Amino acid sequence: MQRFGATGLIGRRTFLRAAGAGFAASLIPSAAIALAGTQAVFASAYRDRSGAFGVALLSEDGAIVHRYALPARGHDLVRQPNGDTLVAFARRPGTFAALFDLGRAREPVTIAAPASRHFYGHGAFSTDGRLLYATENDFDAARGVIGLYDATNGFARIGEFDTFGTGPHDMAVLPDGRTLVVSNGGIETHPDYPRAKLNVPTMAPNLAFIHAKTGDLLARHALPRAMHKLSIRHLAVDRDGTAWFACQNEGDIAEPVALIGRASLHSGAFELIDLPETATASLRGYVGSIAANSLTGHIAITSPRGGVAFSFDPASRAILATRNEPDLCGIAPSGAGFRYSSGDGLFGTARHDVGFDNHLIALPAARR
Amino acid sequence: MRIVIAAMVLLLATLPAAAQERTIDAAIEGAIEGAIRPGFATFETEAQSMAQAVSTLCASPSDEAMAAARDRFDDLVDAWGRVEFIRLGPLSQDNRLERILFWPDRRGRGLNQIQGVIATGDETALSADTLADKSVAVQGLAALEYALFGTDSDRITAGETPERCAYGAAIAQNIATIAGELNAGWQAEDGIAALWLNPADDNPLFHDESEQINGLVKLIGDAFEIIKVQRIDAVLRDDRASMRPKSALFWRSDNWVASLGANIAGLQALVDAADLEATVDQERARFVGAMNFELANAARTLGQTDLPVQAIAEDEEAYGRMNYVRLVVDGLATVSATRLKEIYDLSSGFSSLDGD
Fold first, then answer.
1. What CATH number has the domain bearing residue B47?
2. Chain A contact set for B92 (CB, 8 A)
3. Which of A29, A158, A261, A350 is at 20 to 30 A from A184, Cα to Cα?
């Protein structure tokens, strides 16, 4: 069994610039020691043993160097380009997003989804960092929307786009900066019945490319009718701008089917990707996270239900590394490999007394 | 919930101990042989009785035939409630779960479709064969309940609405067909039971003993969660004044409390048949015993509150009893998702929930 690589991502100097000098100066001594050896930082939402929720900043060597409290369970995180804000979205059907200033110049604040909307746990910043996008549920209309929040004006909500589907989950901005990609999972939910799936027999997931400025639909892809129970949920955009997507199967998981695929706005390609049969079966019908490594072009996926992670070469589709751990879900690029986290507290080879939420992110250096 | 968990913890010190003597294989086999297979066999039998009763009603409408059909519906709801959370294998295939029960129907789309079928006498809904190809919302128990108990259902008795009766007969026959598929799926020697009892590297559902027991623990935990959140919270809400009786499953046939009772009875039967207490050491067995104690509390309280949901909305004491059931089920949901998993050294599954 191979392990994922854990090589450095950014240097300490870059990290300090990313996190802000005040951040390092204010750390307690033990955390400062951990930070001293830091070559890269990651972040993940977590739940601790007392049941409290928060966001952990993690060092390259696996230490938790800082924690932020959250009012309830968080899900995915996004780092602002050209700025110091780290956003933690509430796990669906939560209604808050917490904003943390990595420079520690400002106290954490939360923003709320508007009435009749809730967050889905995911979002993205525009490439200039001035706009925050968040996937949201217009639950009375069973319609997905992208909320638009102005990062230059206290993250005021200034509008919304249609996602052109039901139950949007993850989203990303393509490298061109002009295109959003959204995975409309197809599953209708309503806060009156938290987490109940209201339309599985008729669910119709799709992947939509949307103009980042106008909200116009640029392209929309659906799976074949026979595969309509594959809910397209998570995304990773590779260095070429191809959107890799990961699914969960709402159908019969005793008959394993491909759970990942890729779509290109440029070429119009949209396809499911077959991995070896035993690998697909081990995912137990559920991929929890997907990540792309921009150095190598490799893709990695995790399945907490299968307790497994794979990285593979998208060209040959050969599996490069396999990791088996209970409740393995978080995954992020790290050097030429990937770093993972689990609901049982694993982060790389370190173990913490927390359960990490589904998503782990590498904190990119801010461009200043 | 804290009270319930505290009660469970207190019970650890008082309940009799059991020895670790039962394998996981034996527990799963016990659950299948002692609860799941008999449960689905009963559901098929009741579904056939239901179909016969509606057929008789349509052939010779009368007060007696209507009463008999409605009684069979009560029995069918009971049989369904005991197995509806075995959402593994046959019930998770071919939309069978939703075809038997499309619920919650939050936006009333199912009800609108059912009323549309009855209003128009849609011929494609009047035979089981063609009904099976229509929307899942018009095929199952909610549709049958509306046909037999909904507005103007008494006109069936007078022979004034033969199409409505024929629709009811088609629904009942359709449910019987699906019930037969479910039963056959569980009885098959090479079906889901074989997968559950034979973990292997190439088994698509169960790789090892840990996944075997997790399959059972997950069924139980998910059931408590659904009962609490979808079946009770949505009805009781914060207090009696804000209660929503018409959000209750099977409120038209006064089967809300009975269906909850069937759910608890089915889960109790599952736990009993698996004999989970015997699969763990004495200390842990006490916890499983505490779970049985709370299941019995819920069953007893539901038995004392066998009232129409509208009557509960007008009765503070009855509301309080249902609130207690909610508390117990909430506690069971929490401990199933945490302590029961710890007992079997299973991952917390913190990251494994649907849709995240």
1. 1.20.1420.20
2. 251-253
3. A158
